[in-house]
Specification:
Elements: E1 6-10, H1 17-31, E2 37-41, H2 47-54, E3 59-63, H3 80-86, E4 88-93, H4 96-102, H5 106-118, E5 122-127, H6 131-135, H7 139-150, E6 163-166, H8 180-198, E7 206-210, H9 218-222, E8 229-232, H10 239-246
Parallel strand pairs: 1-2, 1-8, 2-3, 3-4, 4-5, 5-6, 6-7, 7-8
Helix pairs in contact: 1-2, 1-10, 5-7, 7-8
Bound molecules: phosphoenolpyruvate (PEP).
Length: about 250
């Protein structure tokens, strides 16, 4: 089954409204007609303005996080309806920084993913092992537990719309990228797990790789059979750099 490559930018806590709009002006002409799905997740304050700048283009708007409850006394949080209202098509959930710095559990992430589907949005669900877990030979066990927990409430009828981001924690923001073989091994394991959970839909689910993806390594990572795109942090902050990743092809990298 052919899966359309999906490249998503995670800007984390970077860029003001003006910087986000300036990025869009420079980036959109570079990726016009690209043979890939593209999304950008700016910080919340830039969502509306970036959404306007991306309107009518081939680049979708994404959020970096969402709360599972529809409304209420949740200071600092944002609901799925608010994200839909501002034009988001996607939201990242379960990023390792949310898990490690803000204590998010698989159960909470599962509720967020279910809430996104219920609101007509789609989740990019992040999973990944730490260096200590990898060195202890626990990578697959950790991934299985995260998948089982985080995907517990995905409606079967919507499973094909799900996107998983495999992001080994030791590769995020460190400059240390997984080798294409390490990425493929983990992605293949995730695909096998997805087949057990979602049957035929598993072959339609995109699995992005994330962790120090750059223009120089994007093509060989995405040439792996189960690597269906990338979730990109640092290298997505410059328009030319992210465009080179979007346009990367095996044999024609950068
Ligand atoms: C990320 O934040 O999801 C990420 C992969 O970051 P970086 O590309 O900077 O490693």
């Amino acid at each position: 089954m052919s899966r359309r490559r999906f490249l998503a930018a995670n800007w984390k806590m970077h860029k003001t409204i003006g910087e986000a709009v300036a990025f869009a002006r420079e980036f959109l002409p570079l990726v016009k007609g690209a043979d890939a799905e593209i999304a950008i997740a700016p910080p919340f304050p830039a969502l509306a303005a970036l959404g306007e700048a991306l309107a009518g283009s081939n680049v979708a708007l994404a959020a970096q996080n969402v709360h599972d409850q529809p409304s209420g006394a949740f200071t600092g949080e944002v609901s799925t309806a608010m994200l839909a209202d501002v034009g988001c098509a996607w939201a990242i959930v379960g990023h390792s920084e949310r898990r490690s710095l803000f204590g998010e559990t698989d159960e909470f992430i599962a509720r967020k993913a279910a809430a996104l589907f219920a609101a007509g949005l789609r989740p990019i669900v992040c999973v990944g092992e730490t260096l200590a877990e990898r060195e202890a030979g626990r990578t697959f066990a950790v991934l299985e537990a995260q998948l089982a927990g985080s995907l517990a409430a995905v409606p079967a009828a919507r499973a094909a719309e799900l996107v998983i981001a495999y992001e080994p924690v030791w590769a995020i923001g460190t400059g240390r990228t997984a080798t294409p073989e390490q990425a493929q091994e983990a992605h293949a394991m995730i695909r096998t797990w997805l087949r057990g959970r979602f049957a035929d839909a598993a072959d339609a689910i995109r699995i992005q790789y994330g962790g120090s993806v750059k223009p120089e390594n994007a093509a060989e990572l995405m040439a792996q059979p189960d690597v269906d795109g990338a979730l990109v942090g640092g290298a997505s902050l410059e328009p030319a750099s992210f465009a080179r990743i979007v346009l990367a092809r095996e044999g024609a990298s950068s």
